[in-house]
Specification:
Blueprint: H1 16-34, E1 40-49, E2 54-66, E3 70-72, H2 74-84, H3 87-105, E4 114-118, H4 121-125, H5 129-140, E5 147-152, H6 153-157, H7 160-173, E6 176-182, E7 199-202, H8 204-211, H9 216-229, E8 232-235, H10 241-249, E9 254-255, H11 266-269
Parallel strand pairs: 2-4, 4-5, 5-6, 6-7, 7-8, 8-9
Antiparallel strand pairs: 1-2, 1-9, 2-3
Bound molecules: ligand C2E and magnesium ion (3 copies).
């Protein structure tokens, strides 16, 4: 077995492999108990109206606070959760928690009217996915019109026809749908007119390049397609005032990124209102 680790570029010793597999298993056995131990949390990142500078929504992003390892990134444990099927209970927890906290958030800033939740391929592929969403909405009394589910091209492309049916069923509930990381999936564009979508999210790799012109033609093409098909556009990964300007210049009205706020606990972003004096 010869492999190079991408991060360090150094060659792995054979003896490290079992150890790495063991680490993975250990991480997995911890992950199984993470929810009941209260180690999972949601952070939120504001989604801004770039014209007014006001938040219009918030994306929920999962965090895992491991007692020994510290904060484990979703990029690390979501793939593990997908491979093991754990993403099903975890994904349901995310949705319910986003709705529960979202209900409090909706009133806290004028114009804040949308909570976005990421959905994984395995979740979306389940026969009972739409029922699960409906049930969580009912249980939490979260207004469906304020929920946006984020899917990726990869999820949709697996089986476009059945994905379209499922997306339509979600829209019938009142929920809106965003296509996340748009443009990174290298998938055929021919499916785009048929998708019952509300929002295209331009991947941050295009946003960064738009400010210096490199990816500007791609961003313009995305804007033009979105306009033709009637989709809103949200730019991801806005890190500088230059990024904001570049996106406004191409007519993109919404964005999120470190320039506005890093993902953080809801109360840190929008403090709970202090109860007024009793009358
Ligand atoms: P995503 O849905 O595309 O989320 C955007 C990621 O970019 C987040 O990373 C966010 O913290 C980060 N980000 C936001 N603004 C900026 C910026 O200005 N610059 C840079 N460099 N990065 C920025 P995070 O939270 O680590 O999540 C990574 C990915 O993990 C997400 O990508 C999503 O695919 C997945 N994920 C996160 N939470 C969940 C979840 O609850 N369920 C599922 N299925 N996947 C999730
Ligand atoms: Mg997302
Ligand atoms: Mg994204
Ligand atoms: Mg991404």
């Amino acid at each position: 077995y010869r492999a190079k680790t991408l991060r360090t570029g150094t060659e792995l010793f054979e003896s490290e492999l079992p150890q790495r597999a063991t680490q993975r298993l250990e991480l997995l056995s911890h992950l199984r108990r993470a929810e009941e131990l209260g180690e999972l949390a949601l952070h939120f990142q504001p989604q801004m109206n770039l014209d007014t500078g006001q938040p219009v929504g918030a994306e929920a992003l999962i965090r895992w606070q491991h007692p020994q390892l510290g904060l484990v990134s979703p990029a690390e444990f979501i793939p593990l959760a997908e491979d093991s099927g754990l993403i099903i209970p975890i994904g349901r927890w995310v949705l319910a928690e986003a709705c529960r906290q979202g209900l409090h958030l909706l009133g806290r800033a004028p114009g804040l009217a949308r909570i976005a939740v990421n959905v994984s391929a395995l979740q979306f592929a389940r026969e009972d996915f739409v029922d699960m969403v409906a049930e969580v909405l009912r249980d939490t009394r979260f207004p469906p019109q304020c929920l946006e589910l984020e899917l990726t091209e990869r999820i949709v492309m697996r089986d476009v026809d059945s994905a379209v049916r499922r997306m339509q069923a979600l829209r019938d509930l009142g929920v809106s749908i965003a296509l996340d990381d748009f443009g990174t999936g290298f998938s055929s564009l021919s499916y785009l007119p048929n998708l019952p979508l509300n929002v295209l999210k331009i991947d941050r790799s295009f946003v960064a390049g738009a400010a210096d012109g490199r990816t500007l033609p791609i961003v313009r093409a995305i804007m033009s397609m979105a306009e033709q098909f009637g989709f809103d556009v949200i730019a991801e990964g806005i890190e500088t005032a230059g990024h904001v300007q570049a996106m406004l210049d191409v007519g993109c009205r919404f964005g999120q990124g470190y320039h506005f706020a890093r993902p953080a606990p809801a109360d840190a972003l929008w403090p709970a209102p202090v109860p007024g004096p009793r009358r």
